[in-house]
């Protein structure tokens, strides 16, 4: 199996829908978790799935990791470079690194813009931000 240790105390975990082990590379099965209620759905329901993922991570794993990254399955992530770059930051502080998009409602509705993280290119959240209440 590939060595996924990035620094002396770093590791990588993957999230996948339950019962999806047949589609996971055998070398990654031991590093893959799932969470209750997760289903592999179509693109239209991806925001709900992503919200459930962050809810689960915040509720059950927020203290287990210094950094959390969400990236699409077809994204290439240089894990060693990301790990080295993050070592410059204190994960106890509140950090969000990534692209932010906005939905601008029609002016007539007088609603504020809705800002959201864009997952395609990946984004990172520190433990400090995950623990924010």
What does this entry look like structurally?
The model has no long low-confidence stretch (mean pLDDT 81). The chain has helices spanning 46-61, 79-86, 127-130, and strands spanning 14-15, 32-33, 67-70, 96-98, 100-103, 114-117, 123-126. The strands form 3 sheets. Strands 3-7-4 form a 3-stranded antiparallel β-sheet. It is of the alpha+beta class and 133 residues long. The relative contact order is 0.16. It is built from 3 helices and 7 strands, in the order ββαβαββββα.
SS summary, helix count: 3
Q: What characterizes the major β-sheet?
A: 3 strands, antiparallel
Strand order of the largest sheet: 3-7-4
Question: What is the typical, i.e. mean, pLDDT?
Answer: 81
Structural key phrases:
133 residues, alpha+beta, three-stranded antiparallel β-sheet, 21% helix, globular
Layout of secondary structure:
Layout: E1 14-15, E2 32-33, H1 46-61, E3 67-70, H2 79-86, E4 96-98, E5 100-103, E6 114-117, E7 123-126, H3 127-130
Parallel strand pairs: 1-2
Antiparallel strand pairs: 3-7, 4-7, 5-6
Task: Tell me briefly what this model is.
The chain is α+β, with helices and mostly antiparallel strands and 133 residues long. It has 3 helices and 7 strands; from the N terminus they run E-E-H-E-H-E-E-E-E-H. The radius of gyration is 16 Å and the shape is globular.
């Amino acid at each position: 199996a590939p060595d996924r240790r990035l620094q002396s105390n770093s590791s990588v975990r993957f999230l996948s829908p339950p019962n999806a082990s047949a589609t996971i590379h055998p070398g990654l099965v031991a590093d893959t978790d799932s969470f209750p209620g997760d289903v592999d759905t179509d693109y239209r329901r991806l925001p709900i799935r992503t919200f459930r993922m962050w809810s689960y991570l915040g509720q059950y794993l927020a203290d287990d990791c210094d950094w959390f990254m969400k990236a699409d399955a077809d994204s290439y992530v240089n894990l060693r470079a990301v790990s080295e770059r993050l070592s410059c930051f204190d994960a106890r502080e509140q950090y969000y690194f990534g692209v932010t998009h906005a939905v601008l409602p029609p002016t007539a509705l007088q609603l504020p813009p809705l800002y959201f993280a864009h997952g395609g290119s990946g984004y990172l959240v520190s433990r400090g931000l995950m623990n924010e209440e």
